[in-house]
Recover the amino acids of this structure.
């Protein structure tokens, strides 16, 4: 295994602590954990497996890599950057969101808010589908059972050959997962930040059982869409009512960051 530690600078302000808390609340046993101020997880890369550990600090993240093949270092670091949204533009975001009198107190309370990304786009899509209409804690429990059943996070190829009736959630949701996995395994669907957003959204929406909320959440966390807005999200609706239901379009092109501020405004 190749071990290394790399420092990644972020534009300040940098609210990495919020990302860490968000990930901790959704950490799936057997895959990831948050301990002693660091997010640690297993990763599957092009040349082998490894362990990725990311510790957010005031002005960036400290990344520890333990990889089977050192050639995967660049890829692993890129995933860490996306996960903690290190390459965001906090000044530009604050200029727009902070100009709104309703959001201004939230922006001032949490300067440098980031949108948690994803280590793997397919994994994030699975999480989004499983998380439909259930609580964060409920989704975490079910995902833990799914991982335990496969002996680790399942690949698209493994899920593509699965029986939807065998999953620990409704069959319709299982069928959506299998369809998603088949598209990804066949390379008919890519879930990465460099894809065409509209085309990818359309392909996801064409999967029976996948609705607009799920697609927006995937776009926000896996596709790098900084203007995603998961309308209908229960917590988001509650937060908006607390602000007298403003028009979210005035927060373009940074609505994903507005969503994070609104979610955090509700507490844990």
């Amino acid at each position: 295994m190749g071990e290394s530690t790399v420092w990644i600078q972020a534009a300040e302000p940098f609210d990495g602590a919020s990302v860490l808390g968000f990930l901790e609340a959704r950490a799936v046993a057997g895959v990831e954990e948050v301990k002693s101020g660091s997010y640690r997880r297993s990763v599957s890369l092009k040349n082998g497996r490894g362990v990725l550990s990311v510790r957010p600090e005031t002005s960036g993240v400290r990344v520890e890599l333990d990889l089977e093949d050192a050639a995967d270092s660049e890829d692993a670091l890129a995933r860490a950057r996306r996960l903690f949204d290190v390459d965001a533009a906090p000044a530009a975001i604050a200029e727009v969101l902070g100009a709104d009198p309703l959001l201004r107190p939230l922006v001032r309370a949490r300067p440098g808010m980031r949108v948690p990304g994803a280590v793997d786009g397919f994994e994030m899509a699975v999480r989004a589908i499983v998380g439909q209409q259930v609580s964060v804690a409920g989704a975490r429990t079910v995902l833990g059972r799914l991982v335990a059943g496969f002996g680790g996070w399942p690949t698209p190829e493994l899920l593509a050959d699965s029986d939807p009736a065998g999953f620990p959630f409704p069959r319709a949701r299982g069928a959506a997962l299998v369809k998603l996995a088949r598209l990804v395994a066949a390379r008919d669907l890519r879930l990465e930040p460099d894809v065409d957003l509209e085309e990818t959204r359309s392909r996801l929406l064409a999967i029976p059982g996948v609705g607009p909320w799920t697609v927006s959440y995937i776009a926000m966390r896996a596709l790098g869409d900084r203007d995603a807005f998961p309308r209908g999200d229960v917590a988001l609706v509650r937060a908006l009512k607390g602000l007298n239901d403003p028009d979210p379009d005035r927060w373009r092109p940074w609505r994903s960051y507005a969503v994070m501020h609104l979610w955090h405004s509700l507490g844990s």
About this structure: The longest strand covers residues 49-57. The two ends are 37 Å apart (CA to CA). Residues 121-221 form a domain with the Endonuclease III; domain 1 fold (CATH 1.10.340.30).
